[in-house]
Amino acid sequence: MNDLVLVLNAGSSSLKYQLLQPDSSLVLASGLVERIGEPGTRARTRHTVGGGSTTEGEVDAPDHTGAMALVLDLFATVGPSLDGVTAVGHRVVHGGDRFRAPTLVTSEVLAAIEDLVPLAPLHNPANLAGIRAAQAALPDVPHVAVFDTAFHQTLPPHAYTYAVPQAWREEHRVRRYGFHGTSHAYVSRRLAELLGGPVADAQVIVLHLGNGASAAAVAGGRCIDTSMGLSPLEGLVMGTRPGDLDPALAGYLAARGIPLADYDHALNTASGLLGLTGTNDFREVMSLLDAGNPDARLAVDLVAYRLAKYVGAYAVALGSLHGIAFTAGIGEHSAPLRAAVLARLGLLGIRLDPRRNAEGPPERPITTQDSAVPVWVVPTAEELEIAQQALAALQALSASEMPRL
Ligand code: AMP
Questions:
Q1: Which CATH architecture has domain 4-147?
Q2: What strands lie across the sheet with 4-10, from one edge to the other?
Q3: Is 73 a catalytic site residue?
Q4: What's the number of CA atoms in the CB half-sphere (13 Å) around residue 343?
Q5: Residue-wise pLDDT tens for the chain (405 aa)?
Q6: Span from the CA of 81 to the centroid of ligand 1 (angstroms)
Q7: What atom of ligand 1 comes closest to residue 285's alpha carbon?
């Protein structure tokens, strides 16, 4: 049966969506509303039907409820019809240690997501606004929350615990949670399929390298370690975030007159590639590098070195390594970065095939036949994963278990 799922990803000033058939992976429509609620400017919409025609517009959208109304209007006027939508799947960034799986949205679930706002102050409020607006607009359809953190709930205690005082861990829920879970879930499973062996035996590393970046070590479909922690700041060097740091830095800078709010803001928005080179766009970093810019040279070396260190660490964590996947904007498109990372991994017997690395279909191996560990580019498909997870969660709930919406 061709179920239809509407996937919504609400950011602080944006609402992205896709209408999909999870069984066939067919995308019937996709689009976004951006600049929602930004003073002095109108929101922008872009709505694409199938692989074809795109409708763009500038309209008023003071909040997510207004944005949702615009989206419904686009489906009604441009199409396709939303009649027969089986479920709405919502990306929710932080599910804490409470949500280990996609969950039917009830008032109690909304309250729990609200309770997690202190752990994701930038993301969960926007996700909640998106869910509430969509519930009001589509009240007769089940809404399912799919959490970025859920895939990492299988981390063992030695991987998720910070060695900090017990009171912090117990009263303030201080631990590592991990993010990008839907991407890591999809790509690790897809890589396991591509490697040809049973998915249940595959020991793989996924490198999700977009504006945000994280690595995950996955054994038999279960995540055993990941590079992001309590927040998405930890781990790899990213577009505007530094990744791993000495925790003493906050106190050191406070003593030198830098307020905590400025510190926090700088680590989220002015560090990483931006802090090192003046741009967080990796394409621009590569152009600077080609022009001989020393800051860009250092940035690319730092990014590649940090990535190689994580791969080495995760190979040890897994015990044996069957494959590595590069995914997301930089991972899928930057052959030079992939080459720089793999050049540091000779110890693992990895041998790059420069021709395969430089060109080929979006999903392809980039190592030689005799490489001890095959390395692949695997395009991520977060919306498809959310749609499939939402549908599977609903199918798992028998009619009698389905609470009143
Ligand atoms: P994402 O967050 O997954 O959309 O990835 C965004 C990042 O991917 C940005 O830093 C882009 O500069 C980078 N990116 C996108 N396309 C390319 C490309 N063709 N080559 C290098 N980097 C790219």
A1: 2-Layer Sandwich (3.30)
A2: 54-59, 43-49, 26-34, 14-21, 4-10, 85-92, 143-147, 103-104
A3: no
A4: 13
A5: 689 999 999 987 889 999 999 999 999 999 999 989 888 888 899 999 987 889 999 988 888 888 999 999 999 999 899 998 999 999 999 999 999 999 999 999 999 999 999 888 888 999 999 999 999 989 999 999 999 999 999 999 999 999 999 999 999 999 999 999 999 999 999 999 999 988 899 999 999 999 999 999 999 999 999 999 999 999 999 999 999 999 999 999 999 999 999 999 999 999 999 999 999 999 999 999 999 999 999 999 999 999 999 999 999 999 999 999 999 999 999 999 999 999 999 999 999 999 999 999 999 999 999 999 999 999 999 999 999 999 999 999 865 465 555
A6: 32
A7: 12
Asked if residue 205 lies in contact with residue 311, where contact means CB atoms within 8 angstroms, the answer is yes
Q: For residue 346, what are its two tokens?
A: 């000779």
Give the homologous superfamily in CATH for domain 196-373.
Answer: ATPase, nucleotide binding domain (3.30.420.40)
**65: Cβ below 6 Å to ligand 1?**
no
> Hey, what are 105's tokens?
């949205």
Instruction: Give the global pTM.
Output: 0.94
- Domain ranges (residues) in the chain: 4-147, 196-373
